[in-house]
Recover the amino acids of this structure.
């Protein structure tokens, strides 16, 4: 493991604000600001992958249900149409898919919980439908799939104000009936939108696959893959109106790299404390 040392000035201020925000919370002892990366990730951060090895959204996502691994499981690149592609693999030894499904709604109850995940870069993530988080008789997935999270976070040095609309994997073209047979027992998929100007700007895929000692998280981000103004029933497809040069400035290789670094840091960190957090605050312990 190697320590993370990339902390832009704005995030240096944020970590101190987060330390104060979480100080009186019962889970404050899980706030740990020393972050690490696995050594084997470094080669994939030093140069972009071959764009020909990127999966295509919708058309090729079912390849993630095949045994084994894709040619590139961790990497980034810009694509010819100006969009960006990020792929990331993180291992969670000692953790279960149940823990992951629980985490994906539990962290959206109050802003302080989100800071545990990435103390330097996470500001806030709050579920739009707060009532579903504590409604009786729901599964963990029913508390976040179909819900939206309003999120402020730094990706690199840039503050992003986004909304993630969580959707079933099937909405992205993934064969939900084949998930269990592929050893996949958890997911978090969705559309990412910039709150201003209300622009859907990315597609996110997280699939949880069982391993002998826990699970592995296989993530894909398609950045500026299909630009749509608005959300819900009032949308306007503007993708064909945006030239590749504009997409490259907006996303492309630059954002794909920052997204990979962010993903690897936050999920490596989450893997370090999720089993202990779940043991202390999971269902029936301290709710919600």
């Amino acid at each position: 493991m190697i320590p993370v040392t990339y902390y832009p000035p704005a995030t240096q201020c944020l970590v101190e604000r987060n330390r104060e925000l979480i100080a009186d919370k019962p889970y404050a002892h899980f706030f740990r600001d020393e972050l690490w990366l696995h050594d084997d990730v470094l080669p994939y951060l030093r140069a972009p992958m071959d764009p020909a090895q990127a999966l295509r959204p919708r058309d090729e996502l079912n390849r993630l249900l095949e045994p084994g691994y894709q040619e590139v499981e961790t990497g980034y690149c810009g694509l010819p149409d100006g969009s960006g592609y990020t792929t990331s693999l993180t291992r969670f030894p000692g953790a279960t898919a149940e823990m992951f499904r629980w985490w994906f709604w539990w962290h959206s109850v109050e802003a302080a919980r989100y800071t545990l995940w990435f103390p330097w870069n996470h500001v806030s993530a709050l579920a739009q439908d707060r009532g579903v988080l504590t409604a009786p008789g729901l599964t963990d997935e029913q508390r976040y799939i179909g819900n939206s999270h309003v999120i402020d976070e730094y990706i690199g040095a840039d503050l992003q104000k986004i909304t993630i609309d969580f959707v079933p994997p099937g909405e992205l073209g993934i064969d939900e009936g084949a998930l269990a047979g592929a050893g996949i027992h958890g997911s978090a998929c969705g559309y990412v939108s910039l709150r201003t100007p209300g622009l859907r700007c990315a597609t996110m895929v997280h699939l949880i696959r069982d391993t002998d000692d826990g699970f592995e998280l296989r993530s894909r981000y398609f950045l500026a893959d299909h630009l749509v103004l608005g959300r819900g029933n009032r949308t306007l497809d503007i993708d064909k109106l945006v030239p590749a040069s504009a997409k490259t400035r907006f996303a492309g290789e630059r954002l794909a790299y920052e997204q990979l670094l962010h993903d690897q840091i936050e999920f490596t960190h989450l893997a370090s404390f999720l089993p202990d957090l779940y043991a202390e605050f999971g269902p029936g312990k301290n709710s919600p």
In short: The chain is about 25% helix and 30% strand. The chain has one domain: 2-281. The longest strand covers residues 214-229. Residues 265 and 276 are 19 Å apart (CA to CA).
